[in-house]
TrEMBL record:
Keywords of this entry: Electron transport, Transport
InterPro entries: Glutaredoxin-like, Glutaredoxin-like_YDR286C, Thioredoxin-like_sf
Lineage, broadest ranks: Eukaryota, Metazoa, Chordata, Craniata, Vertebrata
Ligase in keyword set: no
Protein's recorded name: Glutaredoxin-like protein
Tagged with keyword Nucleus: no
Record-stated family: Belongs to the glutaredoxin family.
Length: 110
């Protein structure tokens, strides 16, 4: 597996046509985070059993180039997007995550 890397929005430009933020494997998830972020660490632990099914990328909202995300999410981290769309914030809703991931996997198979 490849190491997880925190990317700026500038580095990821073009990954999603609409929103830029966490990515999943055939499916991409973006987590908007800061350092340190105990809730973000907890969320990543909850998602660990699913890591073979998606690529998780982190966007540090405190970096200057991510100031728009900071303004939007500074009180809500962690925030998760799946394939460019808002999915959840504060904590992982595992049922919602599983449902959305299964929908995307189904679409990719058809």
């Amino acid at each position: 597996t490849s190491p997880r890397k925190t990317l700026s929005v500038r580095e990821r430009r073009g990954s999603f046509p609409a929103m830029r933020g966490i990515l999943w494997q055939t499916d991409r998830a973006i987590t908007f985070t800061t350092k340190p972020c105990p809730l973000c660490d907890d969320a990543k632990e909850v998602l660990e059993p699913y890591k073979r099914r998606f690529i998780l990328q982190e966007v540090d909202i405190t970096l200057p180039e991510n100031s728009a995300w900071y303004d939007k999410y500074k009180y809500d981290i962690p925030v998760f997007h799946l394939n460019g769309k808002f999915l959840m914030k504060h904590r992982v809703d595992i049922q919602k995550f599983e449902d959305q991931l299964m929908k995307l996997e189904f679409i990719l198979k058809t």
